[in-house]
Amino acid sequence: MADSTYPIPGAVEAPSRRWSQAAVLEWLNSWVTTVDHKKLGILYIVYAIFFLLVGGAEAIAIRIQLIQPNMHFLSPQVFNRIFTMHGTTMVFLFGMTYIFGFANYLIPLMIGARDMAFPRLNALSFWLTFFGGILLYYSFIGGGGLYGAGNAPDVMWWAYAPLTERAFSPGHAPDYWALSLIVTGFGTIGASINVISTAFCMRCKGMTLMRLPLLVWVMTVASGLALITITPLTAAQVMLLIDRYLGGHFFDTQAGGSAMIWAHFFWIFGHPEVYVLVLPAFAIANEVIPVFSRKAMFGYPAVVASSVAIAFVSLGVWAHHMFTIGMTSVGNAFFVLSTELVGIPTAIKIFNWLATMWGGKIRFATPMLFCTAFVIQFLLAGLTGIILSIAPWNWQLHNSYFVIAHFHYILVGAIAFCIFGGIYYWYPKVTGRMLSEKLGKWHFWLFVIGFHITFDVMHIPGILGMPRSIYTYEADRGWGTLNMIVSIGGIIQAIAVLIFAWNLISSYFKGKIAGNDPWDAWTLEWSTPSPPPVYNFATDPVVTSRRPLWDLKHPDDPDWHYE
Amino acid sequence: MLEKSVQYVLFRAKSWWLLFAFLICGAAFAEGPQATPSIFAPSSTPADEIYHLSLFVLTITGAIFVTVGGLLAFVVFRFRQRGEDDTTEPAQIYGSTQVELAWTVIPVLIVVVLFLTTARMIFAIQDAPKPKAALDVTVVGHQFWWEFNYPNLGIHAVNELHVPLSNQQSPTPTFLKLLSADVIHSFWVPQLAGKTDLLPNNVNELWVDPLHPGMYVGQCAQFCGVQHAKMLLRVYVDTPDQFAAWVKNQQQPAVADDSVAVGRHVFETQACMNCHTIKGTAATGRFGPDLTHLMSRDTLASGAMANTKENLREWIRHPDTFKEGALMPAMQLNDQQLDQITAYLATLR
Question: Which residues of B touch A351 (CB under 8 A)?
């Protein structure tokens, strides 16, 4: 009996159908509806890189405007919008998402699990973050319309009240700022809960907390910190919206509200946020440096403890952003001390990386190049951080270009460098192909040179009295040459990032086939095929030490002897 | 050939660094006011104390950088892999309690030293007693200009602050009370003192004790809206004689010159007086700057341009040409009215 309604196996799908409309929709559908941690991780990373490029383009616009005194490349209003969007994009849309990209992709693979603890919450978190980003950028065409640069927020990324109140910011710009960040904030909360739950509940047999890969540990600490700090930010944003729409007076100083309370709320979020962003960068360095030095991480318990200590202390240092706001001398002294305390665990971390490299056989492949540059740049960032914690000196340097140089040392010199290193390191696992080492070296050297030209030099205009967030400056101030050098450095970095983007795309199609374990590494993800199958592990792994693959490769001298 | 070009590049790089070194040293050793307001060229007691503290901190952080950076450089060059085919693994070291204790204790000690030094200076500057001879000034920040009130002298000045020169034997510092009329601003004249914010509903304090006469530049250091960049600031440190003369002039009412009565009439009938005060006339507005002694100032619109008759006319005709986003509206005056009003304002010394 011939039944034509049932397809005959093998006869239906012709190869030419692969690029038909239906196939494309199906491919899209598989990404939109996915709850697989690896696909969501990739989505997060792609999203983060996209906004890195957008925020980078904004940075270039800022640098062109400041390349010489009295430029007219951007109008004052547009300049203010661009730098607000640059900061907001880089912190919230790039910084907060790369974390969950790495965490989502790697944590289940590293702890021998099949997925995150809550796969559907995971998908929801990503899409909340995604639409939060869309909402923020919709401000360019929504609200005030398409004219000029639309109605994007122009209140700085910390949106100090009362500038954000209706009296001083009519229209909808601060609403876009607050609403979009509330939405991405919900995404962050969901993702953080997922990371913490996964790390604590989904570990395979034998993986005790003190055998967790350092990346998992540090990502978990960062997620816990994100969970704690997103809450006051969201609360403050809701209060701001109540002020703007329901006649509340929390921050409305003309009705007796307080400008200082907004600053406290914001920095209670905003300072630990720096560590939310930088801890995952440490996490990446903690994986890359030992593998390329061919040594076990020196002082594993100290690394874990210092990460927890950083997270803990960072909750008590927020007012060092407010040394100029008029606190009492005792208040200022307290925050000097708490801020300087952060220097102790960070020093421990730097020494641990140094000791890990000490006596090793360091292979300078691209991931290691990025992570080595990170160590020295992070050291410098920490030292300028100490300088800024000296409250009297901070009264001079606060809101000057010195501060911008300092935090770009953290955000670019530490975080972006580690992200690049991490992407070069795990790209073969994700795609099955290696990134081009040749392009990688070009990327690294151009980026490191551009970075130092830009941000080393940027300290100087700060010392010479140049404040931040000004769209232009007078010709007689002596800041012109320095700004031109800074701008040229910025353009070199932009070229490097474009090379990187090209490397990501071209290596996807033409890169060298990677194999399971191209770097001869030790954590569990390298025991799976590249890319890993949907179910990750064919059989549930059992581990006996911090470096399961080391044990397999060196059965004569396994790690667990020493733990 | 290659060697030559490498040498050339090195030479160029060196000359850049020499330029930077020159900039910083030049700033550091110069005394008195400068066009580039370097924090390393202090001219007033608090700025000077901060400068010396910063040299101390720079020494410590510099030493840490040289030590740790040198260690890293050593590790990178000494322990890099030699020979691609060498696949043996180096000795595995998992940690060392003594070493880790050492590098925990040393940072603790450094933190203690830094904290004690810093705390001492915080108290010395913030809680400094106010001498009897001190001058009081109330600073009010506006979008995007500065108001200076001298409560004991009955003076309202705008954008250009005059303070008397002090000396170490009998200091006559100026104590500033800082307020804001709208959003948060920040008062920063790098050569005289660190910055302090001006907040609505809060009063902050700042003091300067200037040691060299002259004009010091500064500007608002907290983003305060569209024209934050041009909320510039000038402080004139006057010798006692100059200061007394300035005070005397500022205490006079506006000059009444009948030859410009038409211009004065335009001022009083074209809404200018709703925002501006000219003492001794019907104009008593408080929203914009006091214009009683307009021509005694070197700049217009908070330092956005030199105070010349042409600039003044252009500024009134179309404020956006100099300061886009300034809150003064273009008043749609015709050419004749513009000439009349400019002629009137030009008499306000």
Answer: 68, 100, 103
Cβ contact B93–A298 (<8 Å): yes
The pLDDT-based confidence of B321 (bands split at 50, 70, 90) is: confident
How far does B101 lie from chain A, in Å, by closest CA?
9
pLDDT digits 0-9 by tens, A399-449: 999 999 999 999 999 999 999 999 999 999 999 999 999 999 999 999 999
- Distance between CA atoms of residues A77 and B343, nearest Å: 33
**How distant, in Å, are the alpha carbons of A14, A405, A466, B227, B229 from that of A398?**
65, 12, 11, 20, 16
Q: How many domains, in total, are found in chain B? A: 2
Measured distance CA(A360)–CA(A348) in Å, rounded: 19
Q: What distance in Å separates the CA atoms of residue A186 and residue B197, rounded to the nearest whole number? A: 33
Question: Model's pTM, two decimal places?
Answer: 0.92
Which residue in chain B is spatially nearest to A476 when comparing CA positions?
Answer: B35
- Choose the CATH number for A33-561 among 3.40.190.10, 3.30.470.20, 3.90.1640.30, 1.20.210.10: 1.20.210.10
- Domain annotation covers residue B191: no
Tell whether B234 is covered by a domain.
no
Can you give the residue range of the structural domain that contains B70? 2-81+94-126
Shortest distance between the Cα of B154 and any Cα of chain A, in A, equals 27
- Report ipTM for this prediction: 0.91
What phi-psi label fits residue B225: left (phi over 0), alpha (psi between -120 and 50 degrees) or beta? Answer: left
Q: Is B139 helix (H, G, I), strand (E, B) or coil?
A: strand
Q: Where are the domains of chain A?
A: 33-561
For A158-213, the pLDDT digits (tens) are 999 899 999 999 888 899 999 999 999 999 999 999 999 999 999 999 999 999 99
CA distance to partner chain B, nearest, from residue A518 (Å): 14
* CB-based contact, A261 to chain B, within 8 Å: no
Domain assignment of residue B164, yes or no:
no
